[in-house]
Specification:
Blueprint (H helix, E strand, L loop, with lengths): L15 E8 L3 H12 L4 E4 L16 E2 L13 H12 L5 H21 L4 E3 L19 E4 L2 E2 L18 E2 L3 E2 L2 H8 L5 H20 L5 E2 L1 H15 L3 E3 L3 E9 L2 E8 L2 E13 L8 H7 L17 H8 L12 E10 L5 E5 L10 E4 L13 H9 L8 E6 H7 L12 H5 L4 E3 L2 H8 L3 H17 L11 H5 L19 E13 L10 E3 L5 E7 L19 H30 L1
Parallel strand pairs: 1-2, 1-13, 2-10, 13-21
Antiparallel strand pairs: 3-5, 4-5, 6-9, 7-8, 11-12, 12-13, 14-15, 14-19, 16-17, 17-19, 18-19, 20-21
Helix pairs in contact: 1-6, 1-15, 2-3, 3-15, 4-5, 12-13
């Protein structure tokens, strides 16, 4: 079934009623819509950009939901994970919100996977980021979406947000961690060679026959599965559609004003409105007032989360949380201008910072952080450096860049000349010459590298304790010792890439009760108005305890909001019917 979501509003009459209206089509919004549709509700999903998926479609898609059906019996417990979150989050977010998440999470995942095409598998080994805290686990909480073949979507494939080009190969083939391992070993292992041949042939076939890749992985696969399910369940989808106003009508009913191109319509939500528009990260005024000083304008997130829906909600009495550790989640990113003049903002999550043969330094050439910390903690260290490490540099040598890559330089032997020519990659034949090119004292950079070389031999980083937790070691090279994250930097030429502390999503959001229903500053619920995803104040309080702590709660609070809203809608219908009788 082909759905023309770009002209949907043309076919909607003013005053059309829906049980549930969801604003924003990232993972949280699409989940809320699916949960509503699974209850038999009439659902409208509104997205202001041309694509569904938001930043979730560009992400790894990891979904942190403890105690789901994918966890092995006895490997975790409510008390264990609750204690872990208490220690990780503390007073940065209300405990009742975490409790609501933990209690509803397993059921949300069960309902979603039983009733839709959404499918996960437990990450075999994906430690919590705060691995040194009591209650942390190495697997069982982080779920990853299964790859998905999308050919049956036909023209609806155009609704899916395209992946970041730099995260694909061969001009558009999406790959995940498993694929990368086989691609790198294709000439070393018969199994990997056959895997690679099948992967590439399937991609070529799809491009020839369907003119588009048909295999979707990671966050893109999660969104593709959600889109397929939404179409099957009859969710009405309208893209390039802007929410311009919400008018309360009493008893939790709301009239929404929507604009799609030149077409304006008024529709009514009888059960609830779920705001899942992705936060305010693209609002320059809120960035200036709510982000820490020195946060750059660069961000690898999808467009669309302008905070416009927040302003409407604030006019209805909603307000932002105040106790968070950070107003956003951070990651060190490098930037490069593409051939089409768009800007690539590349997040340095795990593929280079934790690999042997790298070191990160501030503008003076001094180490300032444990390089193998989570990307959020690394970004915090950059922002907390009083400008000394904003921007910072990641340094490597010829041997490591050949083996592991560096930023946009792909691992496995990418040609370096284009990156050097446009200034993305800075090259020098000695450490001292590289320091001079970077405007830092040669003796400082030399001292930083000498320390790393000494640590590589002993396996002990006495300066910042790199590679001492299971999470940090997991992101190194398991075949390298004695510490999988520590390697020497000795073989010329030497290379550097500039890093910026970019936001990858907002943590500060609108305050709700445990039903995801927004509240006024006086603690009163705003009946029928909900939030999920980055529109909802982070239950992690701006901390980042584990992988997928944005998508996981986004899906679960989409479930909580939809359940509460549909129950309200049913109660209203029953009241109307009894009155009529």
């Amino acid at each position: 079934m082909t759905v023309d979501a770009k002209t949907f509003m043309h076919r909607v009459a003013n005053g059309t009623e829906y049980d549930l209206i969801v604003v924003g089509a990232g993972a949280a919004g699409m989940a809320a819509a699916l949960f509503g549709a699974l209850e038999g509700a009439r659902v409208l999903l509104v997205e202001r950009t041309p694509y569904v998926g938001g930043t979730s479609a560009l992400s790894g898609g990891t979904t942190w939901v403890p105690l789901s059906q994918y966890a092995q019996p006895g490997e975790d417990s409510y008390e264990n994970v609750s204690g872990f979150l208490d220690r990780a989050v503390g007073e940065h977010a209300p405990k009742p919100m975490r409790e609501a998440f933990l209690k509803a999470g397993p059921e949300a995942i069960r309902v979603l996977t039983a009733g839709t095409d959404v499918a996960f598998r437990k990450c075999a080994f994906h430690p919590d980021y705060m691995a040194d805290l009591e209650g942390a686990t190495q697997c069982g909480r982080a779920l990853e979406p299964l790859p998905y073949i999308t050919r049956h979507l036909g023209d609806n494939l155009k609704l899916l947000r395209p992946p970041i080009p730099e995260f694909t190969v061969l001009g558009g083939m999406m790959i995940n961690r498993e694929d990368i391992g086989h691609l790198l070993n294709r000439f070393k292992s018969p199994k990997s060679f056959l895997y690679t041949v099948k992967l590439v042939l399937r991609y070529v076939y799809d491009r020839l026959v369907y003119r588009a890749p048909a295999r979707s992985v990671m966050g893109h696969a999660l969104i593709a599965r959600m889109l397929s399910s939404a179409l099957d369940l009859g969710v009405n989808i309208s893209v390039e559609t802007e929410l311009t106003d919400i008018e309360p009508m009493g008893k939790g009913r709301h009239r929404l004003r929507l604009k799609q191109g030149a077409i304006e319509r008024e529709v009514i939500a009888t059960g609830g409105v779920v705001l899942a528009s992705g936060g305010f990260g693209r609002d320059p005024l809120k960035r200036a007032s709510l982000y820490p000083q020195g946060a750059p304008d660069y961000s690898p997130t999808a467009p669309g989360h302008t905070g416009a829906a927040h302003k409407i909600a604030e006019n209805l009495g909603a307000h932002y949380g105040t106790a968070e550790d950070q107003p956003a989640f951070w990651a060190p990113c490098s930037i490069r201008r593409r051939k089409d003049e768009t800007l690539a903002v590349f997040p340095h999550f795990v593929f280079d910072r934790s690999k042997p043969g790298t070191v990160c330094v501030d503008q003076a050439g001094n180490r300032f952080v444990n390089e193998s910390l989570s990307y959020h903690e690394f970004g915090k260290a950059m922002l907390n450096s009083a400008g000394k490490a904003n921007p910072a540099y990641i340094i490597t040598d010829a041997a490591a860049i050949q083996k592991y890559g560096l930023g946009l330089v792909r691992l496995g032997g990418d040609k370096l000349e284009p990156y050097i020519e446009d200034g993305y990659l800075i090259e020098a034949n000695s450490v001292e010459a590289l320091a001079l090119k970077l405007g830092m004292k040669p003796e400082n950079l030399r001292a930083s590298i000498d320390h790393m070389n000494a640590a590589a031999k002993t396996g002990v980083d006495s300066q910042f304790h790199r590679g001492e937790t299971v999470y940090q070691r997991a992101n190194g090279d398991a075949e390298h010792g004695p510490n999988p994250t520590l390697g020497s930097i000795e073989k010329a030429p030497f290379y550097a890439i500039e890093l910026y502390p970019a936001d990858i999503g907002t943590a500060k959001g609108l305050v709700s009760d445990a039903n995801a229903q927004l509240m006024t500053a006086q603690g009163e619920p705003i009946e029928g108005l909900y939030a999920a995803g980055n529109d909802l104040n982070s239950i992690m309080g701006g901390t980042y305890p584990g992988p997928g702590i944005t998508i996981g709660p986004g899906i679960v609070f989409g479930y909580i909001a939809a359940q509460h809203a549909i129950a309200r809608s049913r109660a209203e219908h029953e009241e109307v019917n009894s009155t009529a009788a």
